[in-house]
Amino acid sequence: MSSTFADIKTKVRKVTGRPSTNQLTEAELENYINDYLVYELPENIRLFTLRQTYNLTLSPNVGNYALTAAERNAYLSYEPPAYVDGYQIQYFQDEQAFFQKFSQLKYSVQIATGDGTPGPYTGTYSYTPIQPTTAIISTLNAGGGSLTCSDTAAGALTGDVIAGGTLNHTTGAVAGLTWTAAVPAGNAIYMSALRYVTGRPIAVLFYANVFFFWPWPDRAYSFDIVAYANPSTLTLDTESPELNEWVDLIAYGASMKIFADNLDMESYAKVKVFYDEYQRLAERRTLKQLSTQRAATIYGDANGYPWQGSYPYS
C-alpha cells in the first residue's frame, strides 16, 4: 500500500472536493498538510514514535544552556528521567522548588573606597567563581545619586562607567573601573554577585527554554533527557511520514483545516467523524507500547533515584 506525500495530497483533494489546482494550489495544499503534520498532530496526541533522546554536551564552568531557535522548533517537550554521564539527576520545572533546594544568594562586599575622582578603581570580590552577568557594582556620587554598573558574559563592565573596566569571573578581580562622575573620598564602592560551585551536576532546572545545572560542570559531561520531537516536514512527493498508518489521519486533519478556513462547518463536522477514528488508530500503537510497562513511582525501584539513600550524593 502506498503512503507517500503524493497519496496524502490526492486524498485531501478527494475529501475536500478540490481536484483542481484552480480551486486549491499545490503550494497551499502542501502548506495545509505540513501545518497539520508538524504543529497539530504531535500536540493532539503524543505518540511513542516521536520520543527521542536529547543530548547536550556540558562545558566546564558553564551552568546555563539556552535552547537554540532550531531546538525550540524541533522538540515539543522534555521529560524525566535526566542523566549526566549515565548518573540519574534530579529534574525540576518549578523554579521556586529548584532554588529552595539549591539556594543561590548574592553577597555584598566593599571592594574599594572613593578618592574624590571618577577612578580608575581596582578591587577584589571574595566570593568566587562568579556567575557571569550577575554582578552589580554601585556607589554614590557627590550629590547622593547612585552610580551602578554590571558585567557582561565576557567580563566587561557596562552602565555608569567609562568603557574599559573589567571583571575577572574566576578570581573576582575588578580593574579599570572608571565612573562617569567623581566618587567623594570615603564613599564605599560595593559589589554583589552570584557565585557557583563546580562538580558533576546532580540537578537540572528546565525553565524559560533554558537548562540550569547545579553544581556547574567542572569538566565536559554528557547530558541526556527524553524529548518529544516534531515530525519531519514532507517536501517530496515520494516521501512518507514517520509511520505509514498516519496517512489517513494527516489527510483528514489537513482537510479539516481547509474546511475551517472556509467556514464550511458542515463539511468539517462530517470529516471529523473519520478523523477521530484514525486518531484513535494512531494512538493504539503508543497505548500498546505503554501498556507493557507499569507506571514508574518513587517506590517502584530500589536504586537510581536521587531521593533515595543509594544515590551517590545522598
Give a brief rundown of this model.
This protein is an alpha+beta fold. The chain has helices spanning 5-16, 26-44, 69-74, 95-101, 247-261, 265-291, and strands at residues 51-58, 64-66, 75-84, 87-92, 107-113, 121-124, 136-140, 146-151, 157-159, 166-167, 173-177, 188-193, 198-199, 203-207, 210-214, 216-217, 221-229. Among the domains are: 1-47 and 243-291, no CATH class; 107-193.
What does this structure look like?
The protein is an alpha+beta fold. The chain contains six helices and 17 strands. Strands 1-17-3-4-14-15-2 form a seven-stranded mixed beta sheet. Strands 5-12-7-8-9 form a five-stranded antiparallel beta sheet, with no helix packed on it. Residues 302-314 have low confidence and may be disordered.
